[in-house]
Automatic annotation (TrEMBL):
<dbReference type="GO" id="GO:0003700">
    <property type="term" value="F:DNA-binding transcription factor activity"/>
</dbReference>
<dbReference type="InterPro" id="IPR011991">
    <property type="entry name" value="ArsR-like_HTH"/>
</dbReference>
<dbReference type="InterPro" id="IPR036388">
    <property type="entry name" value="WH-like_DNA-bd_sf"/>
</dbReference>
<protein>
    <submittedName>
        <fullName>Transcriptional regulator</fullName>
    </submittedName>
</protein>
<dbReference type="InterPro" id="IPR001845">
    <property type="entry name" value="HTH_ArsR_DNA-bd_dom"/>
</dbReference>
<feature type="domain" description="HTH arsR-type">
    <location>
        <begin position="8"/>
        <end position="101"/>
    </location>
</feature>
<dbReference type="InterPro" id="IPR036390">
    <property type="entry name" value="WH_DNA-bd_sf"/>
</dbReference>
<keyword id="KW-0804">Transcription</keyword>
<dbReference type="GO" id="GO:0003677">
    <property type="term" value="F:DNA binding"/>
</dbReference>
<dbReference type="Pfam" id="PF01022">
    <property type="entry name" value="HTH_5"/>
</dbReference>
<dbReference type="InterPro" id="IPR051081">
    <property type="entry name" value="HTH_MetalResp_TranReg"/>
</dbReference>
<keyword id="KW-0805">Transcription regulation</keyword>
<keyword id="KW-0238">DNA-binding</keyword>
Length: 115
């Protein structure tokens, strides 16, 4: 795939902001849990192993970045992934890191940088 560097330059800031939001393990796991379903706060907190207050802080950052959206039903607030870009990136990460016998891509990348 040939990259159009001028086009990339025009979008680099936006891409960097998206990747920055994904560069936190907790936020990444929150988004992974929301990839195929919307979830209320407490079930999501249980799924990612975070306290409700810690989760709320991370969800606020994700909302500010417009990566998740909400729906209120009674007293419950349901969250879901709001960005098709995030969905594509998460699916790519899953394919790279979660498939059976996935190669240790991160270790190879670090080794290449150290060489």
């Amino acid at each position: 795939m040939k990259m159009d560097i001028a086009q990339l330059d025009a979008s680099a800031e936006q891409a960097a902001e998206l990747l920055s939001a994904l560069a936190n393990k907790n936020r990444l796991m929150i988004l992974c849990n929301l990839l195929n379903q919307e979830m209320a706060v407490q079930p999501l907190a249980d799924a990612v192993g975070m306290s409700q207050s810690a989760l709320s802080q991370q969800l606020a950052k994700l909302r500010l970045a417009r990566l998740v959206s909400t729906r209120r039903q009674g007293k419950e607030i349901y969250y879901r992934v709001a960005s098709s870009e995030v969905e594509e990136i998460l699916q790519t990460l899953y394919g790279l890191y979660c498939r059976p016998a996935a190669p240790d891509v991160a270790s190879r990348a670090v080794a290449a940088l150290d060489a």
